[in-house]
Design goal:
about 725 residues; alpha+beta; eight-stranded antiparallel sheet; 33 strands; about 25% strand
């Protein structure tokens, strides 16, 4: 047969199949009643979506295939990257299915809470069902494949497989099998369909956040199998009721971050699933009476663009945003998963399609274009900060008595105790930390001050980890910003601040103390080694260069550096992996504060976006001036901008003639104008009702009161109920 005729026949077969399925959907129903036409359209949209490839660019399909081959990943978002039909996998699954209707390479008695082996039986069923229903593929309607699907389905129904982790029983496995059930419904026997419906009853409406959404999705599939309009409407309502900004609790927060498992940043775990789910249903419900409202679509758009967009860079997701799921290929896989939601939104939100296309091209396709999502964002509900420039970006993850820093769940993230204690990552290409986790020194997480003893982490059996302090916060003027925390973790205390000037990141520390015996360190960098490590300067203030980033230590200190092979294994990260040795070349840079440190301090500057040729000039040309690094005040200036962290009442100089004092702990950004200052201030502890400042001289402005005799002006700033958000005011001498 000629190729042209063959393709025409394939196209004709696809059209006939679609018409056949639609006819079935419209005619099927209980006691002779036809299925609702909008339900039928949603059902057809879903069946079409199962065969669609959203990340369809050849380079992305190659990356997805590579991830699928080499990743034992329990993350449902990573597993769902395998879109459309995979003929090679189907061929293996048919050949590997035994006469007893099971796959010998799966452990059906596995009792793991993560990476549960029987769930891969369900995944293979889903993959085979897609191939069987793909009218453009070689396995369309294939009798051998059809028999294999029915045998594997029967084995699952007879096996009564249950995982110790409720999530697999109620969400993960029903989610995969639901796809297979809808695709195979036209050929299922009455007994098979009854058992399919019974299995889908494992999912009930309830819970909160993304778990609630997942459960409702599975209930909606059951409603379609039953042709139950009322249940469908209830499930649809349960899915979309979470599409809102939550002032309290879990889900989308007012700053567009996402929480689950309490007050914990979950952008790349539950928040990623939420983004994918909502974008998917926005497309599935489109042009039916079930479509999202304008308000719901706006919330989803803002979450994707004002929240999620800020933590994806060059086809990699930020480490801090990935929560506990630091799995093999996870950072790239999560970014690709986010890309699917963006592709669905191009269709579901067509008025903003160009924005989604540009985002996708730059940070999913990674087309080499400069990043256009630039600026500094601070997320007060998550103790999280991001600075994005056209060429590089950096993130900061802190935690407090309000916000959980990290979690250990299902024996995942076993060494992540310090991930929420000031972790500072710098990205240029995006892959600087890809799969570094098995060989990481988990006491040298960049930006973190802690004991250099990994056994402290290993002995800890805690579920949630956090910094035990109220003083954690940040400020932004849109382009630059700052953040600060009082550290109190495992016997180590101190004051830490981070200043994001747009050209560099300046890190200051003071009053560092180790309450227990042992060496305390502050990690500056730990990334995959790429190229040579260069050094310059005198021993007392040596500077370093590695992989496009310069590191300067103007005040010196006991700086240590290694660049070579580090070994480890993935079992250190999560118990689902084996102990096979992993070797990677790693660059580490840190400050050693010594054993039993008292009143320790540090000052270093990170300058990304430089080269081997110009990095030394960049260090010398730094325009940053540190104004204060006393125990309770950190302050610096950069041009006409000033940044200050008052960890307790203190004073700094704005100029030779003007001093600024704060009567309480707070954060301050000031921009000098002509005989004026524009201030942004916040109360990091969320407990102050007012912030009181005093300025030398006579100043006018809202809430200003001048004491001529004392030669100063008092400014009282209301901050009650601001919850760490900035308050702006201006004072003028005119």
């Amino acid at each position: 047969m000629e190729t042209g005729n063959f393709n025409k026949n394939r196209l004709y077969m696809m059209q006939v199949y679609r018409a056949f399925v639609l006819l079935l959907l419209l005619c099927w129903g209980h006691a002779g009643f036809a299925i609702d036409k909008d339900m039928a359209k949603v059902k057809q949209n879903m069946c079409d979506s199962y065969l669609r490839v959203l990340n369809d660019a050849p380079v992305l399909r190659q990356r997805v295939a590579e991830i699928g081959k080499n990743s034992e990943n329990p993350d449902i978002m990573i597993r769902e990257l395998q879109e459309g039909v995979n003929p090679e996998a189907v061929e293996r699954y048919i050949a590997g299915l035994g006469t007893d209707s099971l796959w010998k390479d799966l452990n059906y008695k596995d009792d793991s809470r993560s990476g549960w082996h029987p769930s891969f039986h369900a995944e293979r069923l889903m993959v085979m069902a897609k191939a069987y229903r793909d009218a453009s593929g070689k396995y369309f309607g294939n009798p051998e494949l059809g028999k294999a699907i029915h045998r594997a389905m029967g084995y699952w129904f007879a096996g009564n497989f249950r995982c110790r982790n409720w999530w697999y029983n109620q969400i993960g496995v029903p989610k995969m099998l639901g796809t297979a059930f809808l695709l195979m419904e036209p050929e299922m026997s009455a007994d098979e369909k009854a058992k399919a419906i019974q299995y889908m009853e494992n999912a009930k409406l309830g819970m909160t956040g993304q778990n609630s959404v997942w459960l409702a999705e599975n209930v909606l599939v059951r409603a379609l199998l039953l042709d139950d309009e009322q249940l469908f409407a209830e499930a649809r309502e349960a899915i979309l009721k979470e599409l809102k900004v939550n002032d309290r609790g879990e889900g989308i927060r007012p700053d567009w971050s996402f929480h689950q498992h309490g007050a914990m940043l979950q952008f790349g775990n539950y928040g990623l699933a939420f983004a994918n789910t909502m974008a998917y249903w926005a497309r599935m419900f489109r042009d039916t009476r079930f479509a999202l409202t304008g308000e719901q679509l706006a919330v989803l758009r803002n979450y994707l663009l004002e929240g999620m967009q800020w933590i994806v860079w060059r086809r990699n997701m930020d480490i801090s945003s990935s929560a506990r799921q630091l799995f093999r290929w996870g950072l790239e896989g999560k970014a690709l998963s986010y890309g699917k939601s963006i592709r669905n939104m191009e269709v579901a939100d067509p008025e903003h399609a160009e924005v989604y296309r540009e985002l996708y091209a730059t940070h999913i396709l990674d087309n080499g274009q400069p990043n256009r999502c630039v600026g500094f964002r601070y997320y007060p509900f998550s103790d999280f900060a991001v600075l994005r420039t056209p060429e590089w970006y950096t993130t900061l993850k802190m935690s407090s008595n309000r916000v959980i820093g990290s979690e250990v769940v299902n024996s995942e993230n076993l060494l992540g105790m310090y991930l929420g204690d000031g972790a500072l990552y710098v990205y240029g290409r995006g892959d600087e930390y890809r799969d570094i986790f098995p060989v990481w020194d988990w006491t040298k997480i960049p930006g973190v001050t802690c004991y250099a003893d990994e056994s402290i982490i290993e002995k800890d059996k805690g579920y949630h980890h956090r910094n035990h302090s109220d003083f954690v916060g940040g400020l932004s003027d849109g382009q630059t910003g700052m953040a600060a925390l009082k550290l109190n973790k495992k016997g180590v205390t101190g004051n830490k601040s981070y200043f994001f000037t747009g050209k560099s990141v300046v890190c200051l520390g003071s009053e560092i103390e180790g309450g227990n015996p042992g060496t305390v360190t502050t990690a500056v960098a730990q990334s995959l080694k790429r190229g040579e490590v260069l050094q310059a300067g005198k021993p007392e203030n040596r500077a370093y260069y590695h992989d496009g980033v310069a590191y300067a230590f103007p005040q010196g200190g006991q700086v240590e550096m290694t660049a070579g092979v580090q070994t480890g294994n993935w079992r250190r990260v999560a118990e689902l992996y084996d102990t096979a040795e992993v070797r990677k070349e790693v660059f580490r840079l840190w400050l050693d504060h010594g054993d039993g440190v008292k009143d320790g301090s540090y000052y270093y500057e990170i300058i990304p976006g430089v080269t081997e040729k110009n990095w030394q000039k960049a260090v010398k040309r730094s325009e940053v001036t540190v104004l204060a690094q006393a125990g309770n005040v950190h302050a610096l200036s950069d041009g006409n901008r000033l940044y200050a962290a008052f960890f307790s009442p203190g004073e700094i100089s704005l100029s030779k003639k003007v001093k600024l004092s704060a009567d309480q702990g707070c954060l301050v950004m000031a921009e000098a104008g002509h005989k004026s200052y524009r201030f942004r201030v916040s109360a990091p502890d969320w407990q102050q009702e007012t912030l009181v400042f005093r300025l030398t001289g006579e100043w006018r402005g809202e809430n200003c009161r001048t004491d001529v005799a004392a030669g100063e002006t008092q400014v009282v700033v209301p901050v009650a109920g601001k919850r760490g958000a900035a308050v702006e005011f201006t004072v003028s001498a005119e």
